[in-house]
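Annotated sample (chain length 129).
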Amino acid sequence: MGGLLALLEQTLSRVNDIHTANAVMDSTLKERLRQQSDSMRAPVASLGARVEQMSTEFLAVRDLIADLNARFKRLEQQIVDLDGAVRSQPASPLSGASSGSDGSAERPLPGRAARHAGRQFRPGPASVL
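Output written by the structure step:
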């Protein structure tokens, strides 16, 4: 019976050692997790602020593109109006332009304007971003 009691005491001693080692490991793990959490808090907070700033900037860019599209549409309309006004003016006798059958002068467009005659500006959708 003495041998059994000695084995039981050894087992109890080993269980206590395992329990102590487990408590030390748990404490070390909690401390490391706390340190990692503390070290990551500031970078994550600054990242959130940066994402918010970029979101605001993208909205501003989208608004600027919408404004540019509106300006291009007005400019296109002004060019169309100007073209109509130029085409409706009678030809001067010194220009040597031939008159059409209705008496209006047909003037050829110079250089690049001739290549782009008849094209219309068509802006893409503003939600491309």
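Annotation: Residues 80 and 118 are 10 Å apart (CA to CA).
Annotation: The mean pLDDT is 82.
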